[in-house]
Every structure is written in structure tokens, then in C-alpha cells.
Amino acid sequence: MEKLTLEYLRTIERKWQQIWKERNIYEADADPKKPKFFLTVPYPYTSGPLHIGHGRTYVLGDIIARFKRLLGFNVLFPMAFHVTGMPILSISDRISRGDRKTIDLYRTYVRLYIDNEEEVERVLESFKDPINVATFFADNIQKDFESIGLSIDWRRKFHTAEPIYNKFIEWQYYRLKDLDLLKKGTHYVRYCLLHKQPEGEDDIEDGDVNPVHIQEFVAIKFKYEDGYILASTLRPETLYGATNMWVNPNATYVKVRVHNGEIWYISRESLIKLKHQYPFEFEAIEDTIGSAFVGKYVESPLGDKLVILPASFVDPDRVTGFVYSEPADAPYDYAALMDLKRNPDTLRKYGVDPSILDSIKPKKIIEVKGISGLHAEYVINKYNIKNQLDPSLQDATEEVYREQFYNGTMNENAGELAGLPVIIARDRIREKLIRENKAIIFYETSRKAVCRGKGKIIIARVDNQWFLDYSSEWWKKKTKEHFKRMLIVPEKYRKVFEDAIDWLKFRPCARLRGLGTRLPFDKEWLIESLSDSTIYMAFYTIVHIIRSSNIDPEQLTPEVFDFIFLGHGDPAAISTKTGIPIDTLEKMRRSFEYWYPNDLRHTATPHISNHLTFFIMHHIALFPEKYWPRGISLNELVICEGQKMAKSRGNVIPLVDIAKKYSADLFRLYVASSADLDGVVDWREVEVARLERSLLSFMRICLDATKIEEADTSVIEKPAVRWFLSVFYRHLENAKTLLENFKIRDYITSMYYEIINYIDKIKKRIGEHDALKAVRLILKDWIIALSPVIPHIAEEIWSRINRDPLKWSINLERWPETRKEFINERLEALEDILGNLISLGRELKRLLKSPVSSALIVVAAEWKFEVLDLLREKFLKGGTRDLKQMLGQVREKESLRKHIEQVAEILKKVFEGKIKVPEVELTQRDVYEYLQQNREHIARELDVASVEIIIEETATPDIRDRAQRSLPDRPIIVFA
RNA sequence: GCGGGGGUUCCGGAGUGGUCAAACGGGCGGGACUUAGGAUCCCGUGGUGAAUGCCUACGCGGGUUCGAAUCCCGCCCCCCGCACCA
Fold it and tell me: Please, what is the Cα angle at A864 between A859 and A870, to 5 degrees?
């Protein structure tokens, strides 16, 4: 007898994975005779190892694939690898540069797969070429996938930097351009001054944990001497409350002549930024120290004269290095003014008379419900802010900003903005100032940032940026129409998609660096990673043919794809032109036509608003309607011991650990059963350990049952076994429905947990050996039904009981038929009555103060059965609630008439919902006999020496009161 | 702010118009087995009760209904998304 341990499970898992692979059991080819099901799960990004959260998504996809195979579908479940974009390149760059943190991190990653240290270093060295990063992880992720038992057709794998894939994407972009969905325009990006190139999140130091956003400031021109001081703000509507100007006295400013001859005064740092944002010439005339401005005056576009005062919080490296002061609503301004009032010497130092402060009065211009005084003052007090260098000012500012933006209204002090909500006023004044040449837009990073090579990040303008125009009207309209017809599981995510389709506007779809495919008509641009992975499911249908036919990338011209995917063109002509044999072209066309559309795409919810929506839209733009996607199913994430998995927490469990430390089937069962699709799976070691014990004991039962001869049906007539067969087949039927509706968790509860409980129950009734015989009767059907979740264990059991060499694998089986002849609702109802009786009996027994040795069970009187039968007809089906009418019908029955008062009571309680009408028709005799048959069982369970069963009609007077309370499904127990 | 999800018993989490004191699991209490047990199994876990019941809970406040955790209105709180990034 095998010792059942995790190690044993791992052994059989490896064994079967090996066999499945050798026999290519998951390879699927077009076969017009068979119905097809084309399932995809998005390919992983191969910049590092996957974790168990990814594993959940792939396993759920795999369960669906396996279930569909059991239903007789020809299932295609392919996989590939995504390498496009910056992350992999960035990792490679960092490793080449000798970045310690990255090297250490990747060393731990490589060690997950390789235990020879020399080899680890060799691999790490190879990562200096980005394609090696991609292929190393792609190869190992494939192994991880195999090790958790995914039923993937690996012949179709590819990665997105391969020339054949590039050709496919080129075709896509030619088509998009033909459709006029590709547009050129201006765009602002994060840009590194050192490397003179745009930098993505991956290139920016801490960009992943503390992302850098692009903020749009308005730099307003204030008249100053021979030109303008540019003071910047995110809140131009506050111009109406401006009281003074701030300058950093220690910073260096520069006087600049711009293209139209205007003179601007701005900080030295900001000149560099402006040069990257405006295409015209800037002529630096002279530098000025900030203190030189102090005490002088500017004039705002509204005509207000404002004095320039010193403030240390003003950062010359933030926008223009000047800010105007609006102390009513800006906590920084308010605090800086307070500081000056407290320390008048500061002003004297710059030769300014402190009395000037007396004329500076905050001017309230924004009303927010619940704030009566100055909003800035309110938060200064709330956060207990001491001075202008207090770090809490940031939070205080954000609070005011948020409150005023969403809930603020401009008051009568705000000139032409008066009465407008802030949200409108801001846009209005910005447009106006810019239109009148009184301000410019200035883009700035949301925080100070450097790239991983320590170069300073600013915001720069990119001309000729390529965009995908998702705002295109026909495109959106068609998408919305088709989307209504798509299957979305769980349905609650439908709205998120609809919103995403609405939100999408222009989206930059190419960048200047990275791995991937170049735009064929503008070769300096590389198609960005979310834009080159929208229709690749189509590529799966032909990629294995491209490879096996040794087609060169150069042969894959747009005409080839036009023919395969759209049926355009003459294959003979294309064949002549490209050298691809005509039958190969036609084979690819047939394969595509067979497999498409994608029947189901399964993935995790974060992809909804980007990838999945692009996926739908691109199909709609590029393919004929019959090839548009049919459905999407989604699952939530995995957390670990109640906490989000994060590199920074160090609690990420790599997928590779599953096959090393746990077991594939254990993992599969856990992630599929511990939460519904829309619930978060919490990976908790104690729970996993518990499930492990359960799974091993399940395995034990199955293995023991295999030792019983299939022909041994000696127990089949036992009531407990008949009952067991009934509940089993009802559950089997139910499980199929659940799976068809993607209720994977409920299916496992029904087919796994509940069946195990039923086996425990019959063990008590008929003993372990007979229980195993009963299990043997359903074993084959049971393991087939469980094979989608635990394919390895199922296969192992299968291999021990299957006698048909043609059906060597459980993968070749079909979902078992429900054996209706075994379903016996009456028996189940009787068993329920018995079960309830026992549990009630136990409860009552506990209440008794004195020990008891016998139980008298009273089955309800015959007439009560009649009443409930009547109710079942009239009440359950018809739904009448009319007591009088019901009583009228009761009176017509001779047998019931004499009990009319009690009947009325029962009816009342039924209407109140206190008594349930049993769904199955039973007679008093049925119940009586069933209880008789199970007297010993009842005695054992209630721990009494004797059990007597009588019917209410024969109850002796001393117990008659109690006996009267009996109901057909609720006999009375009297202990003595 | 907008959009989405959610607030249920000690905890995690079922339940979306009536069999609900509330699935399932954890924790806790008791018992069995045992040299022992962190292993396994059984029982219990709102209150009350010598009886097969009764009373009470579902964020807060109203309403609809014979009947509401479930439907409607208002309010409070928590989580996620709001993009160009895979």
C-alpha cells in the first residue's frame, strides 16, 4: 500500500505530466467533424517568475478547458509569451550597468530555477542581452505551467519579439492605418535629461512603488519691469484671491527673451524644462538672484498690484520657481505669511518694511459647505501646522485641493467666475488666460524623480506621436453593440467594461524604445506592449503551421494575412508572389476559420479597462463579425495570509514553489475552491495544510476503492447505498450545471466536499468496507467529474480501474451521464427526516436533566400527511394564501373534517412560513417504515438502549399533547 | 468627485423576498482515541428553555410588504479603478 504523502502526489504528478507530454494529449487540430472550443488566457509577461496569483488565473482557465473537453469539444488552449516593451529591456540595461539591487533580485529569481551557483551567474551574465531575459523566463514559465498540469498545446507557443510575430503585427497596423484609426499628434512624456530619451515607469527610480505623473500647471504672466514674471499654479481660479508674489531669495532666476520678443523671468531650472516643452527659441539674457526681486511689484492679468516677498518653500526646480500667494485657500501661502509676520526681521534683511504685511489680507473667493472662515486657516489648525516647512502642509494642501475641486463654488469676489463650481471655473480661466496670451501651460512631474541611471526626469513634448484613436465613433458604436451580446462572467463586471469603452479616447500606441515590433511605415517607432497584444489569439491558429512549413518571416507579407484572416485575394497569386505553397496558405486559412472566434478569454480583473477592452475593439475593427470574441471570464487576485503579495513585503510565493513544496492538484483544488471567481483567494498555510490532509484522505478512499472489483454490486440494495447513489447522481447532475455556469467553487463543494461527507455518513451506517464498495460503484464517474480540478490524481485512479486501452487517459473520457434510475427523491426526503430527527433528538436529550435510556418516536397522524399533500397541490403550485378558501377545501375531505381546528392552525403556520411543505409526497407508512428500518442507527446515534416507533393515532394519553405537535417531516421524540 | 464592489455571528466568509440562530472554514470549549499529541474523529459554540419551541442579529435612519439581511429612499464607513503602464 502506498504511503500517502505530498511527495507521493508530486511523484504521480510528474509521472503523468511526462506521459501527457510524450503523447501530445493536449494538441488540438482543426477537425470540422467536431465542435470546437477556443479558450485563451493572456500570455504572461516574461520579465521574471510568475507567482501563485497568476497561477490561479491559469488554473481556472485550465479547469474550463478540461471541462469542455469532457463535454466533447475539440478544445484549443494555447499559450505564448509577452516580451514587448520596456521592462525587460530596462532589467537588462540595469544588469549591464551593474545595478546591485536588480542583480541581487534577479539572482534570487534565477536561483528559483537553477541550483548550480556557477550556472546562476552565467545566466545572470547572459541577461545583458534582453532577449535572454525573455527566453530564460519564458522557458521556465512554460515548465511552471506544465508542473501545475495546464493542458496547453505547446506547439503554438511564440514570443512577441519573434520576426514571424512582428510580421503579423505589421499586418495589423497596416490594417489599422487603412481604417484611419492610427493618428499622429503631440504628446507629453516623462523624459530623462541625462539619457535624452523618454523613460517609462520601469526606468524611473522607485517608479513602480511611487509612480511619477504628469501634472499640468498654468504659468501666469505677471507684468514686471520690462517683461513678465511667470508664476505657476495648478489652480488658476485662485488668481482672484492673489495677494502677493513669492520668490525664493536664494535661487537663481534667469531673464529670457522668447520668440515673440517677450521678456520672461523664470528660474534657471525651469528654462531647461521649457525648452523641452516649446518648440521656439529661448534667449537667456542674464541671471538674477531671487532676493533681487523682493520688495518689487508685479501686476496680475486682473490688474492687481502685488508685492514680491521671500519664501523658502518656493522651489526653483518646481515649475517656474515663482508662485503667487493666495493665502485664503493655499496652506503654504498662509503659513509663509504667518512666518513673515512672526519674524519681521526677515523682510528687513531684504530692505522691505514689514508694515507692508498689514496690507496683505487673505481674500476668500471659494465657498465650501461646512467651511465658514478661510479654508487654509482651517486646515493649518486641523493639522497643527507650525511653519512653511512643516511636512504636513502637503496633506493639508491636498485636502483643500480635493474639497474645493469637487465641492467648491466661486463667490462674488471671483469676478467673472462668480457662482461657478471650481471644477468649471478652473478650466474656464485657464482657457481664457491662454487664449489672451496671459499664461502658458507648463508640464511638471508630480514629484522629483531620476531615472535608474540617476538622470533627472522632466516632462518633454513629443511631436509625431502615434495614437490609436479609440474615440472613433463607428468603432465605439459597433463595440457597444457587440459587447451586449458577449458573455461576461461574473456578470457584475459588465458595467466596468461599458465604462472602459466609453472612457477610451486617444491612446499612444508606440514608443521609441523597447522590444517588439516596429511600425512598418514609420520605423523609428516601436509598437507599445498593450497595443501589440490585442488580436494575437488569431496567430495561435496558424503559428504551428508557419513553423512546420518553414516559412520565412519575409514571406509573411500583408497579403498572406489578408488571405488567412479575411479571405481576401487569390491564393494562387499570393503563393506565386511569396513562395508559400498554396495548400499551406489554404491550410492556415482553414485552421483559422475552424478555430475562430475566440470562445472564451479568461483572465484577472485588472485587465478589464485596458487589455480586454482593446482585445474586443481590435477584433471588431479588423475581423468580420463572425470572428468577434464571444465571451470573457474573470477572476480576482490571490493574497497571502491576509496580506497583498508584494515584493516589498517579501511574501510573494513563486509559482515554481508549487511543484517543489506543495502539489499541483493541491494548489489547483485550493485556488479553485477557496473563493468564487469574484472573491479574493487567501493563501493560508494552515488552510493549505488542512486541504492537503483532506486530499490525501480522498486519495486513500479512492485507492482503497480501486481494489474492489467493478463487478461487485453486493451492497447496491442497501438503503444507505441506494440513498448514497441517489445523492451522488443528483450532485453529479448539479455539478455539471454549476460548471457550465462557471460556478467552479460550488462545483467543488458539491462534487468533492459534499460527496466525501456522504461517504463518511454511509461509513457509519454500513461500515467502512461496504462503504468502499459503494464508492466503487460511483468511482469512475466521480473521478471523471473531478478530473478538471485534480487531473493528476484522477488520472492515477483512472489508470488503476480502466480496462480499455483506447481510453488510456481520463482526458479521453466524457462527462458521465447522470444515472437517473438511481435518483430517488423519496429516499432522500426520508433520510433528511431521519437526519433531522437525530439532530433534534440530541439537542433535546442534552436539555434533559436526568439520564434517559429509551426513545419513543411518534410519526405524525395520517391526516396531517393529507393536509400537506393538499397544500403541496394548492399552496406550493398555485400560491393561494386564502385561509378560508383552503379550509373550505379541507372541509370537503371526510378524513380531515374532524381535525378542522388543528388543520387551521397548521395552515396558519404554513402561511406564516413557520411550517414548510415537504416537496416530496410521502405517506405515513413511508416514514414509519423508514424509521423502523433505522431503529438501530437511531439508538446508536442518540445513545439510548431502546427505540420504539409508533404512529400518532396510537399514542397513549400521557404523551398525546406532545404527539400532537408532530408533523409529517418532523416526528416527535419522547425520552424516558 | 465619478464608476464599481462591500459593511452579516469572536474572525474569514455563505445567504439577495418566506423552511434564517444564520452554510462552510478558523478560533474557542468539551469528549473519544492515545505514552503523548501540534494528528484524527465526535459534540458544542446568540439568549432562554424538562422539551421538538420562544425571543434577539444582519453599518445607521426611514419606507414598501402578510413577511425584508434580501426591494425602495436618505446617511455613515471600507476597498478597487480613474489610463497610456505591463
Answer: 140
